[in-house]
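hey so i finally got around to running the thing on that chain from the lab meeting. sorry it took forever, my laptop kept dying and i had to restart like 3 times. anyway pasting the input first so we r on the same page abt which one it is
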Amino acid sequence: MLQGVERLDDLIGPRESGLTGATLAEVESAVDRNDLGRLAETDGHFAAVAREGCTVRLARTIGLPLRYFVAKRYHGPYLVVSDRIDRLYDYCCSLKIGWQFDPLYTRMIPAHYLVEIDQIGCPDPNPRYHRFFDPEVAQGPREIDAAGDAYVRAAYDSTLDWIRGVPDGERIAILFSGGVDSGSTFLLARKALEALGRDPGLARAYTLDLGGGQDAIQAERWVRELGLEAQWERISLEGTVPDLEGAIATIEDYHPLDVECAATSLLLLGAIRDRDPSVRFLIDGDGGDENLKSYPLEDSDLTISSVLRNPLLYQEGWGIDAVKHSLTYSGGLSRSYVRTYAPAQKLGFTAFSPYTTRRVIAKAAAMPFEEWLGGDASRLDTLKADVVQAGVKSFTGVDMPVFPKRRFQDGAGGSYRRWKVSKAWCRQVFLRQWEERLKVAWSPFAERVSGNAVPT
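ok and heres what got predicted. didnt touch it at all, straight out
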């Protein structure tokens, strides 16, 4: 392997969203030095890459996906970094080494880790993983009102930090279902705008209705009860069927619930874009379910014990050392946040959710879930509403309406919800899409460059 040759191409560069505690340049420097303490002092989101000799370091938080592919060239292993699988492939094709590519050989950086990769040639050594976020568990207030206040205040602080980075006068779209997470986000965004001396009306809420959607019904009741009808719009697309295959191509993943969510989101974001071509920023409540463990256990192979013994299960999956951990995708919201990130990016939005920041996740992790549940998993059905409603009341003084919880794609309505979308079908579509794409590189007529070819 040749020394002194650049073997890293970062196709997307350092990024941040609502970052506090450091500048992006300081984050880059901390990644370069493997300074986990400095990264831990930050909040908001970042993704950054650095190289020191033959070692590449990569780090990210939930809100900004980051992945890499190790190609082979004449000087040894060659790392290509981006936020999307297709960008990695297109770049390899531009170097005429697309024939080396396999989407399942790409690797997603797990959220809340700094990953070190040594480029020393075959066989490639395993990456080294270093955590920079390790919240205390079950050490917070025991009373729901106090825990809710701490949680909502943290979400407000994250919202305020993000909106500070939105240019004054810019409108902000709220993806709004009338549920606990999107409703609290709407109120916190308005409060943050007012605190910054801006018009709270710059935050406008949108609700998708594909026909008979319960979200549109409850959202209308929500805004009427709080006198916010002028800042809300129902997006009626009755009869429109979400494009599930298009969603799979957009998020580059095949988890059915994330596919359905992304397909529904693409419809809503597309309609917002048609109505207001100039709006660039959007905020939602993604991550709220994960923080308060508000998922029906009967829909999965999880038990209440597995949820409680793995405090960041919903944010990070089973963990990097677990058998079930996916190297291609990581796990939990670290993996599935592409359902928000990718549709927004495709349609020209910058997306943010306060419930994905570390300060908010830490407040949730500090809650005494085991004590509150007392072994009764059904308590999870209402716990999130109790905590967030109490927090919103304490912090804002607003009695936020609360309605039965449902998933975004379910609440939008429409006839397609009678279908059962399976993981097997989604995975087949994903593989078929990539089979078609890879034909370009594998065509007998395509120009190919050997991994051993030395440039002349």
